[in-house]
Structure formats: structure tokens, C-alpha cells
Specification:
By secondary structure, the protein is α/β, with parallel strands linked by helices. The chain is built from 15 helices and 13 strands. The chain folds into 2 domains: 193 residues, P-loop containing nucleotide triphosphate hydrolases (Rossmann fold, 3-Layer(aba) Sandwich); 198 residues, 2-Layer Sandwich (Nucleotidyltransferase, domain 5), CATH 3.30.420.280. Helix 3 crosses helix 4, helix 10 packs parallel to helix 11 and helix 12 packs across helix 14.
């Protein structure tokens, strides 16, 4: 397909329309462009147009890269296929390779950035890196940047912010007007004309302040200091009573030292935590001992309602010291509803869910922790971020486990607004 024919065809393709903000980026002459945007601003649509138009006009390899291959498929594969007219295809899309081959001779293919070394050594015409903040920096510097050298090819970096990390560094580079090679933009969700502003306002009912600024207003937020900054004893620590015939939510973080669990319950629009379990020196029997202690606490309380179980998805694997953690819990709680996903949610989404329950932008407090839960309260007050922007799990090994378990529960039953309303790439954990 010639460039002229491609251009006429694309002008008639309603699925490839761009709004004004997207047009700013698309028309830029900078080789390397960085787009920092809120949820549902239209990053995926921009990526789709960038790759399809270029692939129709110039033969070559065009790549879309997400943090994981599953992310790439969840975020982009269906949208990519939907944006391509059947007359442009050289053959049916390859579902196993996540590749589309066009009559122009080009190939658009999806990859994950789990191992940057697997992305080396190919001559590319263009690459789009989606949610670059969640990738290793060397994905760009060591793997993909050299692959663009043959054709002096461009790259588009898109995503929501994640602290002041390598994505922020590229954004800052794009703000340097003396370097015409780079350009960068920052867009809020509300700047998408197809998003109802009322939807953004409604998100404040479920989001904590920092998450709202980051996810909806595309603000780079410092993650130094407390992870659960929205937790305040005066608002979130209160005596809790179980509703004895209602479901309880048991949350586990599978660990040996310490072994932890919590007993919570949804009461109206609130999440309450009644008791915790934190055991040490249990070795390979840690999960069994924790589960048995939870059973004892429920018996003492005379709870008769259903049981729901939440926790770490990695606990399905068998251990050298005994059966898998999931198998142990299924044996201890045979009638329970299993709420542990196939894959874990992102750490930042667990933290956002907890903070959003502690206090929303509108001042709602939806989390109550009983004063007896000393370990969980310590977690929520003391867990901090490490220099790499992830939770600090090294300086005090006794921390993070109970709050991680709480996050597994809340991110599923009280998901933060960007996940609930705006769509979410890593959707497998909701199943």
C-alpha cells in the first residue's frame, strides 16, 4: 500500500481519530516523545494510531511494549486489531505471537519488558513503551535504544506517573527546549473531551488524595516517607465487633517469619479489621499454624457466617518444606469462598486501595482497625518506601506482611477509582 493510498484510507477510519491533546503529540517533530497522562486520557488510542499509520506508510518492524507480555495483550491487542481494516492485512493476526502483518510489508508486534535482554538486536522503525514507569530503565537504555539506530527510528513513551523515577527523568528531558530531539507533555484525564467531568469528580469518592493526583491528574508524587500516609489513628483505629452471621474476610501474606493473617469484614461501605495473627518460629508449618489460630479466634467469637479468603497468588506453588500454602488453607477452610487471584495486583494498586479506604479526597474514612491489631497498626504507621520507589521490606523484616495481606483484600473488594471506573490492564487478579 503506498503512502498516499494509506493516507486516504486512514482519513476515512473513524477508529483512528485523535482528540486535540493527542494531535499535539502526534504532530510533534521530536524523535523521542514522552506523554504523562491520567487514566483514560487516551494513551492507548494514541499508541494505536502511531503504530498503524506508520506501519501502513513505511515498511518495517513496529513494536508495542508493556511491562509484561500479559499487560501488552490485555491493554493493546484487542484495540490494535479493532483499529485495522481487514483490507490492510496480509494475513490473519497471529494470536500466539501477538503480531499483525500488513500488506504494506510491515509487522506490528507486542512484547513484554520482563527481560530486557529479549528485546535486543532488531532494527525497528518505531517503538511505543506503555507504562514505562513500571519497566526497568535498561529496557530503554540497553535494549531498545540501540535497536533504533539503523533507521534513526522514533520512540514514544507513555504512561501514568510513578514517583520521581526514570520515567520522570525522560519527562524532564523533554521539557528542555534546547534539545529538539526530545519533547514531553503532561495531560489530566479531564482533558480528554470524551470523558464526562462528572466521572472524574466521582472518582474522588473512592481515591485517596495522592492517588487521585497521580492517576487522574498525571502528577508526579514523591513516594519518600510513609506508604500508608492516609492512615491516622484518630480516624482509623476504633473498637470493632464482628457481625457473627455475616461473611468474614480472612487475608494472608504467606511468609515464614513472621507468619501473618487478619480477620476483617465488610460492614456497609466500610472495611473493618477485627483481629490479627502474627506468629514467629513456626518454620514450614507457618501457614498451618496461622490458619489454625484464625479458626480458634472465630470459634471463640462464635462466628457462624461464611468465610472468604484473600492472599498472595504465589502461594499456590508447592514448597520443599511441605504442601503449598493455598492447599493448606483449602484443607483448613473447605467451605470458604476462594478470593485469591491467579496473579497479584501491582504493589502500588494495593497501597492505593488501603490509602483510599483510610481517607478519600472527600474526607470519607472507610477503614476501621481494632486497637487489638498492634502489628497491623504498626505496619500502617511505619512502612516506608525504599529509594527505588517500592515498599521497604529490608530495614525491618517484621513489617509489611500484615499490610500486604490487608491490601490483597481491599484492592479486590474496595478497588481504587482508577481501577474501578477507568479500566485496568492487569485484570487477571480480579477473576
Amino acid at each position: 500500500m503506498s503512502g498516499a493510498v494509506a493516507a486516504r484510507t486512514l482519513n476515512n477510519a473513524a477508529r483512528l481519530v485523535l482528540h486535540d491533546g493527542q494531535q499535539q503529540v502526534y504532530r510533534s517533530r521530536a524523535r523521542f516523545r514522552v506523554v504523562v497522562a491520567g487514566r483514560r486520557w487516551g494513551k492507548t488510542q494514541l499508541a494505536r494510531v502511531e503504530l498503524i499509520v506508520s506501519a501502513l506508510q513505511q515498511t518495517g518492524r513496529y513494536w508495542y511494549i508493556a511491562p509484561t507480555l500479559k499487560d501488552a495483550k490485555d491493554i493493546f491487542w484487542a484495540d490494535l486489531k479493532d483499529g485495522i481494516d481487514q483490507s490492510w492485512l496480509a494475513e490473519r493476526p497471529n494470536e500466539s505471537e501477538l503480531a499483525v502483518r500488513l500488506r504494506s510489508g510491515s509487522e506490528i508486534r507486542l512484547f513484554g519488558a520482563e527481560d530486557p535482554d529479549n528485546l535486543r538486536g532488531r532494527g525497528l522503525r518505531k517503538v511505543v513503551l506503555d507504562e514505562f514507569a513500571d519497566m526497568k530503565p535498561e529496557t530503554w537504555t540497553e535494549a531498545l535504544r540501540p535497536a533504533l539506530a539503523d533507521y534513526k527510528a522514533p520512540a514514544l513513551f507513555i504512561g501514568t506517573p510513578r514517583a520521581f523515577n526514570h520515567f520522570h527523568a525522560l519527562y524532564e528531558r523533554g521539557q528542555d527546549e534546547t534539545d529538539q530531539t526530545w519533547a514531553s507533555w503532561q495531560f489530566k484525564t479531564v482533558e480528554n473531551p470524551f470523558i464526562d467531568p462528572a466521572e472524574v469528580e466521582a472518582a474522588k469518592q473512592d481515591s485517596d488524595e495522592r492517588t487521585f493526583r497521580q492517576e487522574w491528574e498525571a502528577s508526579f508524587e514523591a513516594l519518600a516517607g510513609r506508604a500508608y500516609y492516609a492512615f491516622v489513628r484518630a480516624h482509623n483505629v476504633k473498637p470493632v465487633s464482628l457481625h457473627l452471621s455475616d461473611p468474614v474476610c480472612l487475608f494472608f501474606d504467606f511468609n515464614i517469619e513472621p507468619a501473618t493473617a487478619g480477620i476483617g469484614q465488610r460492614q456497609g461501605d466500610r472495611a473493618v479489621v477485627w483481629r490479627e495473627v502474627k506468629l514467629t518460629h513456626r518454620g514450614g508449618e507457618a501457614t498451618k499454624a496461622t490458619g489454625e489460630r484464625v479458626q480458634a479466634l472465630l470459634r471463640e467469637a462464635q462466628h457462624t457466617g461464611p468465610i472468604r479468603i484473600y492472599g498472595d497468588a504465589t502461594g499456590r506453588s508447592a514448597k520443599t518444606t511441605g504442601p503449598a500454602d493455598h492447599a493448606v488453607l483449602r484443607g483448613l477452610f473447605p467451605g470458604a469462598t476462594w478470593c485469591i487471584p491467579h496473579a497479584n495486583p501491582h504493589e502500588k494498586d494495593r497501597v492505593s486501595a488501603v490509602n483510599g479506604c483510610c481517607e478519600t479526597v472527600t474526607g470519607r474514612h472507610r477503614l476501621e482497625v481494632d486497637p487489638a491489631c498492634h502489628g497491623l497498626i504498626a505496619d500502617l504507621e511505619q512502612v516506608i518506601y525504599a529509594e527505588n520507589g517500592e515498599l521497604d521490606k529490608k530495614s525491618n523484616p517484621m513489617l509489611t506482611h500484615l499490610s500486604d495481606g490487608l491490601g490483597y483484600w481491599l484492592v479486590r473488594d474496595f478497588p481504587p477509582a482508577p481501577l474501578l471506573r477507568a479500566g485496568f490492564a492487569r485484570a487477571e487478579w480480579l477473576l
